[in-house]
UniProtKB/TrEMBL annotation:
The protein's name in its UniProt record: DUF402 domain-containing protein
Xref: SUPFAM superfamilies: FomD-like
InterPro entries documented for this protein: DUF402, FomD-like_sf, Ntdp-like
Keywords linked to the UniProt accession: Hydrolase
Domain DUF402 residue range list: 47-154
Amino acid sequence: MSETSADQVAVVLMKAGRMKIRYPAEVVADDGTVVTVRAPWAAAGVRDFGFVRFEPGDVFTEHYWRDRWYAVKEVRTSAGVLKGWYCDVTRPAVRDGATLTVEDLDLDLWCSADGETILRLDEDEFAESGLSERDPEAASQAMSALNTLEHLARTGASLSPSLPKASPALHNAP
């Protein structure tokens, strides 16, 4: 089943049982397994991580899987220049009508557009979250997802299902 539409959803990112952020996004595609949405940078102002800056005008094309423990966000400037991919380790996504919900499990991965910078992020937050004690299976899935994302990035596999195979940084679809 391949469905493409321009409907809207509210993306809801949960963390530790609370809503971290909620923002509107346009549904680009939903094939029953992967939901792809597009949204502008949802926070107020600039967020400078040191390795990348997210700022007003940036456009995020976000891929959420119903069967994988991560989400991949392709980040571009307002002019369309690729900044890179911000990957969140999450529980599998759930779409219920006009709401797309994911639970953030603290672990993240950044891959720059040129593939030169690949960073595992927030492993300290993950360790402090207590997930390993509360839900060992989820913690194992989370670490496996982070390892998978890093492997894909380091081997040049595409992190983004919609990314053309000719991309200079990540050229082969998984």
